[in-house]
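Entry 0007
Protein: Alpha-D-phosphohexomutase alpha/beta/alpha domain-containing protein
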Amino acid sequence: MTSLSIATVPTKPFDGQKPGTSGLRKSVQTFMQNNYSENFIQCIVNAAEDRTKLVVGGDGRYHNSHVVQTIIAICAANHVKHVIVGQNGILSTPAVSALIRKRQTNGGIILTASHNPGGPNGDFGIKFNTSNGGPAPESVTNQIYELTKSVTQYQIVKDLKVDVSKLGVQTFDVSGNQFTVEVVDPVDDYLQLMKEIFDFNAIK
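Output (structure tokens):
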């Protein structure tokens, strides 16, 4: 297995990267600026108390696939050991929450702008949920915001490309450390949870 190297990329802060309870929502074109998404993702990772295992997925809107790969590559460079990602980068917000709790991860990064319009001229968003499955509290989002105001670099494994279309576990050597990406069905675990909560036969 070829060992992948970590790159440190110099950057500078962007104004206005203050997340609300539903994360950082901006236009797609804003997120497509050079280093914009990378800065915010690095600050999320820096703010996480424990970053051993994270869930990643989004609602599939424009720019989702690119940012999923960026998150995985930044996680790999920042000593995250295990990333669980929805197949094709897709996971609904409640599905991410369910996976965080079921798999006892340290949190999850969700790519969504909720009800805002999508498409290349629409909106995009990055949200962080903590280990209880819920949105990051204000204490965490404030910490992320403070970090965005002074960030000078981010770390990324530029040559890491993960096939998120294929279910299963993929392992990589990143500077001598094993990095695991697990691609899961976007619905299975959430559906199982719903079956435990609701009597679908009775509803039918």
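Curator remark: The chain has one domain: 7-197. The longest strand covers residues 82-90.
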